[in-house]
């Protein structure tokens, strides 16, 4: 039973690799994935804009709540039984710092993909500095 749908940027090699990693860990089929570059994708269907979804990871819960940024990340890791990996993201004292760091990282995800050697193709990592 799917409990969370992740909206991701398939053109980002690092993002795609992370979705594959989550899929490997998802032994109970709790996650679904929606490519924001897929045919017919419309962020307005989820009450937000494409620019907002492009800026930070978004996830839709089974009960219709839209989670953004580190809340989406924490929910995804928790759904696949890896909540211990994201415990710092949930702590009230450090959550604002992690949220800010994540937004910076998400903004620079193409550069990070290139620097970390995630197999950028068609020049996407060299031309898309956000």
Reading the helices and strands in chain order gives EHEHEEHHHHH
- Tally of discrete structural domains: 1
Radius of gyration: 14 Å
What share of the residues does DSSP label as strand, in percent? 5-15%
Poorly predicted runs are none
Mean pLDDT: 90
Structure annotation, total helices: 7
Q: Tell me the number of strands.
A: 4
The N- and C-terminal alpha carbons lie at a distance of 36 Å
Based on secondary structure, the structural category is alpha+beta
Estimate percent helicity.
40-55%
Question: What is the makeup of the main sheet?
Answer: 4 strands, mixed
Strand order of the largest sheet: 2-1-3-4
The dominant shape is globular
Ordered list of secondary-structure elements with their pairings:
Elements: E1 4-8, H1 13-25, E2 31-35, H2 50-55, E3 58-61, E4 66-68, H3 70-79, H4 87-90, H5 95-107, H6 109-115, H7 124-127
Parallel strand pairs: 1-2
Antiparallel strand pairs: 1-3, 3-4
Description:
The protein has 130 residues and is α+β, with helices and mostly antiparallel strands. The protein has one domain (4-127). The chain has helices at residues 13-25, 50-55, 70-79, 87-90, 95-107, 109-115, 124-127, and strands spanning 4-8, 31-35, 58-61, 66-68. Strands 2-1-3-4 form a four-stranded mixed beta sheet, with helices on one face. β1, α1 and β2 form a beta-alpha-beta unit. The radius of gyration is 14 Å and the shape is globular.
């Amino acid at each position: 039973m799917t409990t969370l749908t992740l909206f991701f940027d398939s053109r980002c090699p690092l993002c795609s690799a992370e979705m594959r990693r989550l899929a490997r860990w998802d032994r109970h089929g709790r996650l679904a994935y929606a490519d924001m570059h897929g045919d017919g994708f419309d962020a307005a269907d989820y009450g937000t804009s494409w620019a907002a979804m492009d800026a930070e990871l978004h996830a839709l819960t089974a009960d219709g709540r839209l989670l953004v940024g580190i809340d989406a990340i924490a929910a995804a890791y928790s759904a696949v039984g890896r909540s211990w990996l994201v415990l710092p993201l949930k702590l009230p004292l450090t959550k604002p710092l992690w949220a800010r760091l994540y937004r910076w990282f998400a903004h620079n995800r193409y550069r990070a993909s290139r620097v970390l050697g995630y197999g950028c193709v068609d020049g996407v990592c060299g031309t898309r500095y956000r």
